[in-house]
Design brief:
This protein is α/β, with parallel strands linked by helices and 369 residues long. Helices cover 45% and strands 19% of the residues. The protein has a seven-stranded mixed sheet, sandwiched between helices. A two-stranded antiparallel sheet has the order 7-8. It has a two-stranded antiparallel ribbon with strand order 10-11. The longest helix is centred in the middle third of the chain and has 21 residues. It starts with 9 loop residues before the first strand and ends with a helix. It binds nicotinamide-adenine-dinucleotide (NAD) and zinc ion. Zinc ion binds next to helix 10.
């Protein structure tokens, strides 16, 4: 493992021409937020959007830190949970902004997990045709995945993320210390995206995860710093090459075709995003053996690492196959009515396939029950 001091701050650059930005990773960044905002030359007025779990833990601390640097901020919070990623909550926020004297120089800080990041990002993208956005991810999933890359949006009852836009943040500040208060089940859920990154892009990192999993999940500082940095590097590279997902960015959807369908069928209640994609990755790994030449032993390693990380790998009897098909067709992962899958040729090398038949899917879902 990389011998980095655990209190060190790391920077990863997302190269997107004029819209390039830094991801700053390290402990204690919340208290230092002002110093990182200063070079962005924002206005003095900001809105901190957060949720009902994160607000009592960190909102005041952040507000104070920004006040010391001369920024005036207001905190708006949402009920915690995926159901807040809705047009209703977005509208609630839009309607509060005029009275708070938000103008085009004002900025939005998304302080929280992926739900807050996606929703606040959507609000920032649309209000006054775009306010400066700072992502301050506090969940593992948000630090390794959702805060980077500019996908923002909300769900509809018919499916996840059906309304939204690409809108890059000006800065991502990932304070790794905030992970200490994250419930363990949420930590494991975020770890599913970490495993995904290794599986699609970096076999060496995957092998590192197999060895260091316990240190990451017990939040050993150097292990966490390494994971967040490596995942951000991988995502930054992918997003720089393909911001709008016309090519390799689609690889990030490994496990998400069936995963999103399961989330939609559970109405986003009782099943966390990472848990859904853990099961989705198992199905996709089996499909990869069948259709993309993945060695069965490598599919076994994926399943084993997910299981060892306390993630679900079996679908059980809960999901009817026809309901899954219907949900998959409604998801964004269908093109001209055909559902597509991300498959692995080998660990670290992904491909997109739209040649998967319903029979193939039926078969692997049966294997994964
Ligand atoms: N935009 C993208 O590219 C992208 C990528 C992956 C996932 N996502 C989206 O991200 C969402 C999932 O994100 P998530 O897993 O972070 O969910 P989340 O935002 O619901 O956060 C998980 C839970 O942890 C709580 N929490 C967050 N940080 C905490 C902390 N430091 N201490 C204590 N509690 C804390 C939250 O209140 C919530 O209850 C999904 O909607 C998914 O679609 C988006
Ligand atoms: Zn995901």
């Amino acid at each position: 493992m990389n011998s980095m001091a655990s209190n060190e701050t790391n920077r990863v650059r997302v190269e997107l021409g004029q819209r390039s930005y830094d991801i700053v990773i390290g402990p204690g960044l919340l208290q230092r937020a002002g110093e990182f905002l200063q070079p962005l030359k924002l206005g003095k007025r900001g809105i901190i959007i957060t949720d009902s779990n994160v607000a009592p833990l960190y909102a005041e601390q952040l507000r104070e830190a920004l006040k010391r640097a001369g920024y005036e901020t207001e905190v708006l919070d949402l009920p915690a949970g995926e159901t807040s990623k809705s047009l209703r909550q977005a509208n609630r926020l839009f309607e509060k902004l005029p009275a708070l004297h938000v103008d085009r120089q004002s900025f939005v800080i998304a302080l929280g997990g992926g739900v807050v990041g996606d929703l606040a990002g959507f609000v920032a993208a649309a209000y006054l045709r775009g306010l400066a956005l700072i992502q301050m991810p506090t969940s593992l999933l948000a630090q390794v995945d959702s805060s980077v890359g500019g996908k923002t949006g909300v769900n509809l009852p018919q499916g996840k993320n059906l309304v939204g836009s690409f809108y890059q943040p000006r800065l991502v500040l990932a304070d790794t210390e905030t992970l200490k208060t994250l419930p363990e089940r949420e930590l494991r859920s975020g770890f599913a995206e970490v495993i995904k990154d290794g599986a699609i892009r970096d076999a060496e990192f995957f092998a590192w995860l197999e060895r260091e999993r316990a240190n990451v999940l017990s939040l050993e500082p150097a292990a966490v710093a390494h994971v967040v940095r490596r995942c951000c590097e991988l995502k930054a590279e992918i997003v720089s090459a393909d911001e709008r997902e016309s090519g390799i960015r689609a690889f990030l959807n490994f496990g998400h075709t069936i995963g999103h369908a399961m989330e939609a069928l559970s109405d986003y209640v009782g099943l966390l995003h990472g848990e859904a994609i853990a099961m989705g990755m198992c199905c996709a790994a089996h499909l990869s053996v069948k259709r993309a030449g993945l060695a069965p032993a490598e599919a076994g390693r994926i399943e084993q690492l997910l299981k060892a990380s306390g993630l679900p790998t079996r679908l059980g009897d809960k999901y009817d196959i026809d309901d899954l098909f219907e949900a998959m067709r409604l998801d964004k992962k269908s093109r001209n009515g055909k559902v597509w899958f991300v498959l692995l040729k080998r660990l670290g090398e992904a491909v997109v396939s739209d040649a998967i038949t319903d029979e193939d899917v039926k078969e692997v879902v049966d294997v994964c029950r």
